[in-house]
Specification:
It is a single chain. The protein has a single domain, classed as lambda repressor-like DNA-binding domains (434 Repressor (Amino-terminal Domain), Orthogonal Bundle), CATH 1.10.260.40. It is elongated and about 40 Å long. The protein is an all-alpha fold and 102 residues long. It has helices at residues 4-8, 10-24, 30-37, 41-48, 56-66, 70-73, 77-83, 89-99.
């Protein structure tokens, strides 16, 4: 059973997964990315499909393995507003607070 907060922010994780998949394609296989990040290939598949949330340190490991910055893998604020427009205010506020610079 999925957690309620995850459901509220599913579009956000779908976009993160799509960005990871796009950065990986043509450079690494899912198996190679999994090996470099100490994850399983199944985890990489689930992350890319937006089914698995990504811990911050894992996001850094993925970015390093793909030779991109973490910010390249996280939707910008304009993208977030679009992705979360139909979500609850509390969920939108949490994602925005988690992705803005202090």
């Amino acid at each position: 059973m999925r957690r309620p907060r995850f459901e509220q922010n599913r579009q956000f994780y779908l976009e993160v997964g799509a960005r990871i998949a796009k950065a990986r394609r043509g450079n690494l296989t899912q198996k190679e990315l999994a090996a470099r990040t100490l994850l399983t290939r199944t985890s990489i598949i689930n992350i890319e499909k937006g089914r698995q949330q990504v811990l911050l340190h894992t996001m850094v490991d993925i970015a390093k393995a793909l030779n991109v910055s973490v910010s390249d893998l996280i939707p910008g604020m304009d993208d977030i507003d679009i992705l979360l427009r139909n979500k609850a205010q509390k969920g939108r506020a949490w994602v925005k607070a988690s992705t803005t610079n202090p």
